[in-house]
User: What shape does this take?
Amino acid sequence: MAIKLNKREKIGVAAAAAAIVIFLVLQVLIFPLFEKNAQLSKMLATRQQEREQILQLQTDYRKTAEKAEQAQRHLKTRQRGFTLFSFLETLAGQTGVKSHISYMRPTTTTLKDSPYRLSMVEMKLEEITMAQLLTYLHGIETSRDMISIKRLSISKGEQKADLINTVFQVETVEM
Assistant: This one.
């Protein structure tokens, strides 16, 4: 049962067959390649971001390790028998605030899995000037003994308006 088609119909059937073949080639070969290419491009961008994050973390780790080594060197160069309490008392004498010390409360905490301990002193100075306080705090913060001020509270003096009272905590790591 042969169907007789005229020339125009044969061209139409051939064009339809060519369109179907082109459609199938696009669906089976070309579109999957484009999708795979898009997936690979996204994966590559993600991997590049991850690599940048890893490099940043590596840089941060190296800086932290360098700071830790520097801190250990500073701790080893500290005077034998160094204590935070005696340092603060000596500095108070040097800066002229020793007579204004109301109290000094030392505490020491042993750090887990470490040869170090955290030494802290809470201190109250009464009826001092702002300049005296700044001189004393500057002496603490600029010390090579790795001492830092953890907390600071300042209030007006009770007897003279230009004088202040302050309570602060100072801490350092000791061996």
